[in-house]
Amino acid sequence: MKKLQWKFKERKIKTAAAILILLLSGLLLGGCSGQEESTGTQAPISSGGSEDSEYNGNTGKAVSDNPSPQQENMSENHAEENVSAQAKAFEENPGAEGEAAQEASGINREASGEEEGDVVEIPAYSGQAYVEVNGNIPYFEDGELSAESYEYYSELDLLGRCGVCVASIGRDIMPTEKRGEIGGVRPSGWHTVKYPEIIDGNYLYNRCHLIGYQLAGENANTKNLITGTRYMNTEGMLPFENMVADYVRETGNHVMYRVTPVFEGDNLLSDGVLMEAKSVEDNGAGVLFNVFCYNVQPGIIINYENGESMADGSSPAEKIKQTVQERKPEEESATAAGKTETEQPAMPESAATAEPEMSELEDMPAAETGAYAVNDRNGKIHKTGQCPATGDGEHAMKSPVYFGTYEEAEAYSFSIAPKQDKRKCGNCW
Fold first, then answer.
1. Average pLDDT rounded to a whole number, residues 124-130
2. Global pTM value
């Protein structure tokens, strides 16, 4: 991935007016809901991440525990009239609210580069899931920080892509129930594709929440879900979402939170997301970060124009697979040398000259497939025939991968289980 750059619109004092518009619209919507009183703070349930969390709950917008006296005294009819007027104004100028909120968020990605502002450069991906931006200091101005919980989600653009999402995260908008089904949402660039030998979890893409479900309880909100790699979701975004969620639960304070997906040109798949957060009541003492998470997957080549992908032949797993598939028949015969005619049935000439596929190798008897067998679940390396794991009994591996040399076996072991401490089987060595 090449170096990325885009521009942040210059901050102006006028953004305070835009924030007022956003908060006012939230208060009006809150008035229309029937003025229900708060039932008290429930202990939020933690989540497993942007895509894989297990919880669902309230999805309150512009929530406030302490409504103003004007709001308390407003009748339902008056509230409905205000909301109707607001809806009519929005119909006449549908971009006004979004423009105001986007200006309030302080961010404006310019594809043309004509807007004046500071150029933000993101280095090309170099092996780390995320990189700090602006010295890890978010771009929030003091006037943007809010101790009142609220959420804002940009409208999808003409290509169906998500925009900036902003929220003041508080306990009152965090979920208290399990997350519902989101499989019906197909974000821009979505493909259902699996790489079981390369990706933990098999699937390349997740439906990634921009504002994590555990933070705001948003379920299948199309304005909040993008196509993100498993790697970006779990290694990039999730640790920062957990940090914010833990802080809010423990302190009851608010965290100003903004996530911006960055698309190049008309690409349907984002290059990554910019995540900014600052704890409000303690002015950043508890939570403060500004990071860019790369939408990449090690071992996979991705076409960001449409989301299509292919395995990278330079990845360790693919190199090993290619080595196994390209082994010559005589090498396989040499491995099986020394066996008696009764132990090794004669093979048809066509089979003897055919180049074996990976699945065929795994189905062959152990002695015919290599001196070393790797457990594809945990990366353990076994000597063929030296322990029950390489036999055909109840303790045998279900899907071993065989290699002729220990170096090949070790390389494959590292590719599927890089954190395995003891690679050699204790029974074999």
1. 95
2. 0.55
